[in-house]
Amino acid sequence: MTYPENYRYTKEHEWIALEGDVGTIGITDFAQRELGDIILVDLPKAGAHLDEHQTMGTVESVKAVSEIYSPITGDVIEVNDSLASAPEKVNQDPHGAAWFVKVKVSNPAAADALMTADQYADYIQQKAGS
Amino acid sequence: MKPEMKLIFEKSREGRTGYQVPDTGVESVDPRAHLGRWFREDIAGFPELSEPEVVRHFVNLSKLNYSIDEGMYPLGSCTMKYNPKINETTAAMDGFAGVHPYWPERQIQGALRLMRDLEHLLCEITGLAAFSLQPAAGAHGELTGMLMVTAHNKSRGEKRDVVLIPDSAHGTNPSSAHICGLKVQQIASNTRGRLDLESLRAHISPSVAALMITNPNTLGLFEDEIAKIAGMLHEAGAQLYMDGANMNALLGKVRPGDLGVDVLHLNLHKTFSTPHGGGGPGAGPVGAAKHLERFRPVPVIEEHDGQLRFASNRPDSVGKVKGFYGNFGMLVRAYTYILSLGASGLREIAEAAVLNANYVRAKLSDRYHLPYSCLNMHEVILSDKKQMVHGVTTLNIAKRLMDYGFHPPTIYFPLIVSGAMMIEPTESEPLDEIDRFIAAMRAIADEAETNPDIVKNAPHSTTVQKLDEARAARTPILRWKP
Known about the structure:
heterodimer; A: alpha+beta; CATH 2.40.50.100; 6-stranded antiparallel β-sheet; 3-stranded antiparallel β-sheet; 4 helices; B: alpha/beta; Aspartate Aminotransferase, domain 2; Aspartate Aminotransferase, domain 1; 3 domains; 12 strands
């Protein structure tokens, strides 16, 4: 799996794609593979305020429940409700159809501090090697 | 022969019964006339079967079970050890099994004496000042302990709402703290698998109520800097909570109270051999240092002129946490266990628990990856790193173990190890059984290389083969409908 060049990535394995001041957030292919079959995605509601590095929801797989951390500060404007009935989408298309939320971002420049696709690929390589 | 898998409701045949009521000569009454609109027209789906059908149904179900009385149950973190039968003998004695909590205290002095003595024994074992036997489970003990910490801070006029929890702690710790209204901050482990002191230092602040540490931790490692950790917390006015679920590794060797622990819970259904899992109920007594003693739940047992009684007039208490006085039957079993082993026996428990787990580690270290390759305590963590090369995962290995006649270990926990297998042989396993387990694990490692499909498609010998766990969790069917 390749990591889209136009996305930015966190150490906790979330991605964010920015278009102007609207950011789309999801979890990475590496994250879904580590988690295994995903059975439940619990997301914030539209209108919720998210803070960078703070918990925004949880993903439950057959192995464990994991927290999702917001890569950025902003307000949720749209939630991918289709994941409620079809959580397996996260396993099938983590970087596309299985986006979690769209956020109106307070400071789009803050995303520059996150990892690029190349940096993230190196990061998970190191993790796999440890 | 493949056992019948029908539900008892599916076996029901209208009009079939297992009993006949003899003719009493009493005139029958029409219930409708007496109950009026409360008379029920339909019985709500009770199955109708004969006595042998009911007996066979449940006996056959029981044969699908696996228990510690059949073989090793190496479920790391859960301490599934053997429950000695003498515990059942004492718990079934009339004076214990026949008493009722509403009886006057003067008629149940023996039961109260047992509770009082058990409190003293647990104080002696842990080095703490006082115990409450009331919490009904480990997590209930955690909640009670954290309520006591909160009450203590409140009594000093301090607002402390942060709890620090290492990433190698038991999963219930953050949950208990959260239910107590406290905010959880996670502390990282260092490369030695112990709490990172620098990370702890960075998180300590006047808002910190306590650190909740599991010792030995879920990597099966002793937190060897715990005295220093206690010092750092106390200096900042915070408490040290210890999750004592793994106390079987420490019995008679180390007393948490001597290390600076302020409050802890024990799991009688782990360390003290009372039944665990479906055989429960559990018991999670909480111990406290002197300065937290007055916050214990009510009632506490007090002694006046040789008479024991329950006292509830304790203004600083966190209040009641359980109906009546805890799961009394479990207290009888734990008390029996402690007395039948004695001090030297308890010490041998810790020695055997640690020796057995290290033996498993040493005998498997050439075939399985060891994320922390050092001496461990009562449990050892392996990972599937070497088997992943052949596409075989921890889940596959766990399922394959069932074909060899073992209950699988805890898997994918602790979370900080990818593909973790958490193995706790416990002190109650004889060497031959541990050797049989090691041979099975080595055979599976061979299969992963030579015939990975047999591992990936396991289990093969169980009544129900490989389950679609994801589908069961995504679209659960929780109710049978005719």
